[in-house]
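Ticket #4471: structure export looks truncated?
Reporter: QA, pipeline team
Priority: medium

Steps to reproduce: submit the single chain below to the structure queue and open the exported record.
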Amino acid sequence: MKLILKWLLSATALLALANLDPGVEVHGFGAALAASLVIGLLNLVVRPILVVLTLPVTLVTLGLFFFVINAGLFWAASAMLEGFQVRNFGHALLGSLIYSAMGLVIHSALEHLFPPR
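Actual output as written to the record:
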């Protein structure tokens, strides 16, 4: 239940992001659902591999390279889908920052609604 609700809220956040950033386009709620699923899967599977491979760069930049990884995955998700487009890397960076902040709010709200047992 909690996972489905988080997925629906993340798709809604992606639609809201498309209204905030003109460089991010989402064509309907179905496309937002697909995009939030792909972003979540990329963050689950690909992100840990990229974090390990880019660890030296991340250490030199004091962790700021994590923003580049997040933006790259956000942009990669847009390249995989038809109804979700990100204009350029700058919009991917801004979009990933806003989407991550919205994800933190969603996660926090769901933790209060469904506390761990």
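Status: closed, not a bug. The export was complete when the record was re-opened. Leaving a note from the reviewer for reference: The chain has a mean pLDDT of 96.
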